[in-house]
Amino acid sequence: MKKNILVIYYSQTGQLEEIVRNIARPFESKKEEYDITYYNIQLKEDFPFPWPGDVFFNTFPESYLQIPREIIPPSEEVLSKKYDLILFGYQVWYLTPSIPIISFLKSGYAEEILKDTPVVTISATRNMWMLSQEKLKVYLKNLQAKLVGNIALVDRHDNYTSVLTILRWLTTGQKEKSGMLPAAGVSDEEIAGSVKYGDIIEKHFRSNDMSHLQPDLVKNGAIEIRPFLVRVEKVGNKIFTVWSNLIINKKEKRPLLIKFFKVYLMTAIWIISPIVLVLHLLTTPIFWVKRQKQKRYLQGINLK
Predict the structure, then answer these.
(1) 299 φ, ψ to 5°?
(2) What are the tens digits of pLDDT across the range 24-75?
(3) Is the pTM of the predicted complex or chain greater than 0.90?
(4) For residue 6, what are the contacts with CB-CB under 8 A and spacing of at least 6?
(5) Cis, peptide link before residue 50, omega less than 30° from 0
(6) Domain-wise residue ranges, the chain
(7) Which helix or strand (DSSP H or E) is residue 150 part of?
(8) Which of 71, 83, 84, 295 could join 3 via S-S bond, C-beta 3.0 to 4.6 A?
(9) Which residue in 102, 149, 144, 152 sits closest to 127, CA to CA?
């Protein structure tokens, strides 16, 4: 009997869809053994792309506070099967799984689909995904899914270059390099090469033993942990908690507060972040052991 594989994703730009389809290719190539179903999460009122004006910044409080929107129900084809493995592709918005992903996870359909099923999470982000993955782990645990693997592909350029390229991509739709700026997002080479992770997943799935999948994925480059960015994420989550609640609770001042938040965010990236980097480097000898332990944890799939 064929094994049922479900590929879940939400992708505005097409980048994540290309990645998850590449990772699914080893299963697609064995159609006599696997039945592959794709589920593209869709909102009843979707977000625009490219993002006009300050619309992206205006999604911040709902993104960070994980306030869902209504989704279009999955098709009968998706709901009618019990799956043996799920490849779960997601984006990160404001250090949190994106609103479409949260909307699915908070819908009644998520538990029906995910419960008691092995899940491999797949993200494609600028560079900060670590604590977003921790939030996703909580959802998967509460939905009684079985997280067996994680793949996190990122923009390999430095933190500041990737800010400029992602803003260009979000606001104009241009991913390709321009002037002195490189192409945005995950490189074409890594996207094309992501099929290797599908080979690894299929090998472990075929052997009916997923217990060593994550170490194998890590060994083959599926996860990169930059301790400095973990620190930035931790600080960012604390600050985002304050800003998001302030904006949500001051509805009459929302437009003004969003403008202030935008200014703050740019200031944090270009002024505060370098200071955090210097402090991080200065304290590296002191916290080396702790950071290595943290790195090993974030490379894994367990939840503290």
Answers:
(1) -75, -15
(2) 999 999 999 999 999 999 999 999 999 997 899 999 999 999 999 999 999 9
(3) yes
(4) 36, 37, 38, 39, 78, 81, 83, 85, 86, 87, 113
(5) yes
(6) 3-225, 229-295
(7) strand 146-154
(8) 84
(9) 152
